[in-house]
Amino acid sequence: MMYKDKISEAVKFLKTKLPKRPQIAMVLGSGLGGFAKEIPSAIDIPYEDIPFWPKSTVPGHAGHLVCGQMGNNYVMTLNGRVHYYEGYSMDEVAFPIRVCGLLGVKTLILTNASGGINYGLTPGDLVLIYDHINFMGVNPLRSEEGNLFEPRFPDMTFVYDHKLMMLCEQVAEENDITLKRGVYIAFSGPSFETPAEIRMARILGADIVGMSTVPEAMAAKQMGIRVCAISCVANYAAGMEDKPLTHEEVLEETKKASSKLAIILRSLCDTVKES
Ligand code: HPA
After folding, report:
1. Which CATH fold topology does 3-271 show?
2. Is 132 a catalytic site residue?
3. What average pLDDT does range 206-223 have in this prediction?
4. Is the shortest distance between the CB of 29 and ligand 1 below 6 Å?
5. According to the 3-state scheme, what is the secondary structure of 4-41?
6. What is the pLDDT of residues 231-262, one digit of tens each?
7. 176 C-alpha to center of ligand 1: Å?
8. Nearest to residue 112, comparing CAs of 210, 7, 252, 242?
């Protein structure tokens, strides 16, 4: 079966489950799934029920959609994502985002956990991603099926939507939450980086490092979806402290910062307007 037909199958299935078109989709990253509990009278759809939807194999990533009305918007949260390092192809990593696009989602909010590269960042900080460096070694929009989505050569000057960034900053300020801005560099993982790689990333202009988000943001941008991405700094990047990195530490720190993030996410869902 062709990739595009698999996407159509998933879209067809979800249209039978959802009472209306989702306006916002939100990807909840490592340790950040708690937000979904805040959606009133939510519909829960396990990933395994959705045709061809990839399933996460990583602790801290649940596997279900939680959908419901929040203020102005019908919101679909994706609890758990799949990563390139799990052995999935980039087509599979981008699959959920393309389904969102064809369901009519106009705004995508991405969250993740990251390592802080910039010396001004501390674990627990929230960072609004304003640009990225794709260091995964592959372009996620490369496709065997030719011109899968238009445009073939999408612009990446403005991946992260300015209006959404300003809205996030306004909400953060109103709630006394410090929200910094930064450039995210994506490595393919699953190993953490070496200290030398982190020094290189700093020279290249990256503030935070992770193993996700970039393929999703690029796939969304290609489909004309407005993107907003917030990262939770979980650890100092490799070599900045005299100790090794662990996934457990990442989950622990993100959980601690997740209540601040939830305030911003809730407010975005309540107030985002499509035009
Ligand atoms: N490196 C890569 N990915 C990450 C890190 C890191 O230090 N922390 C959380 N995700």
Report:
1. Rossmann fold (3.40.50)
2. no
3. 97
4. no
5. HHHHHHHHHHHHHHCCCCCCEEEEECCCCHHHHHHCCC
6. 999 999 999 998 888 888 778 878 778 889 99
7. 26
8. 210
